[in-house]
Amino acid sequence: MDTPTRNAASFVRTAEELAPRIRQLKDDIERERALPAELVAAMHDAGFFSLWLSRDFAGPELSFAEFAQVIEALSRLDGSVGWCAMVSAVWSRLSGYLTQDAGRQIFREGSGILAGSVNPTGKAVAVPGGFRVSGRWSYGSFIQHSQWTVGNSVVHDDEAGGRDGAAAPDIRFMIFPTSAVEIIDNWYVVGLRGTGSHDFQVSDLFVPEERALPTFAPRPLRAGALYATPMITIFAASLPCVSIGIARAAIDAFVALAEGKTPIGSATRLRDKSLAQVAVGRAEALLRSGRAFLHEAVDEIWSAAEKGRHATLRERAIVRLAAAQAAEASAQAVDLLFNAAGGSALFTNNPLERCFRDVHATTQHIGTQASNFELAGRVLLGLDPGTPRF
């Protein structure tokens, strides 16, 4: 029997229902540097952490366009809320590559929450039946609320760290219980404070073969374009969905401020000043153009996957370019509004202050930072991308 699925509109409605409570908890999110347990429970029950979970495990298996719509809606309410949902939902995509037994163990019919890190700073030694994994990783967003953790690791032949001499290292997502992880409380940051993106580590932890997935070219065990698109490429494309939602919140906040504020020394409201009009117009244009480019680029690789064709190096580079551009354009939009708001934007009770900090945090991720412009430029000039993480 087919599992009934939810669409983006249903998730967005649920986000709107949670909006009043999220606003009430904003100070708690900042102070505790994590999402409150009660909010996590409500979001979990609503399915926000499993947007890309396979239907085989009772997930909705949304398209990228639907996923983006939901993450934008949550990020519009709070950047940390959107980021935590985005990260966990992206990890739920691993359900497309796991065996039935491993998938059921991890996701337990839609209930499992994953956290982890893409950076391959772990070491895995092959042993009978699996691997012994040790390492420390950074940026474990939402790890305090997860049941399972992903530690990207380089596979070695022996304890001394030797490899088999192959041209490319064997790098795998190692999935292990969060109960076996030591979380290192070091997430003291300017933006996205509520994501709890702490370092974490394990030592000599056994991970069975079925929970060790190739990072760059896993073989999908479920049908559909979602799991046929390139792993790292689609992960990078997911990040600016948060940036876009934050920028939309900044526009909302600025419009509300401009309606009621009369700047010092002026007889007219902020909304009647050309400075404000130009700022909000340019911000809207930046946001919409960045978003459109992102969706156009992802549509190309999604269409290729639907036709059974692998995305070309150029198509993947364009997605990475679009992700960086969407995040940068979102930050530029927020900057325009922050500056046009004047001193009002400095106060923590003004939503623009949080938007400013959070959106700039999103641009610091390796998937959205400025180095992606160089990566794409190299490919467009006929060179290799300059990184294996592509």
Any overview of this molecule?
The structure is a single chain. The protein is α+β, with helices and mostly antiparallel strands. 47% of the residues lie in helices and 15% in strands. It contains 13 helices and 7 strands. The protein has helices spanning 8-24, 26-32, 37-46, 64-77, 79-91, 100-107, 225-228, 231-238, 240-260, 274-306, 313-340, 351-362, 371-380, and strands at 114-127, 130-140, 148-156, 171-177, 182-184, 198-208, 212-214. It has a 7-stranded mixed sheet with strand order 5-6-2-1-3-4-7. A hairpin with a 2-residue loop joins strand 1 and strand 2 (130-140). The two termini are 38 Å apart. The model has no long low-confidence stretch (mean pLDDT 93).
Continuous helix count: 13
The SS-based structural class is alpha+beta
Percent helix, as a range, is: 40-55%
Q: Spell the H/E element sequence.
A: HHHHHHEEEEEEEHHHHHHH
Strand content: 5-15%
Strand order of the largest sheet: 5-6-2-1-3-4-7
Q: Tell me the overall shape.
A: globular
Instruction: Write down the overall mean pLDDT.
Output: 93
Give me the count of strands: 7
Distance between the termini: 38 Å
Radius of gyration: 21 Å
Largest sheet: 7 strands, mixed
| Unreliable residue stretches | none
Question: What does this entry show, briefly?
Answer:
47% of the residues lie in helices and 15% in strands.
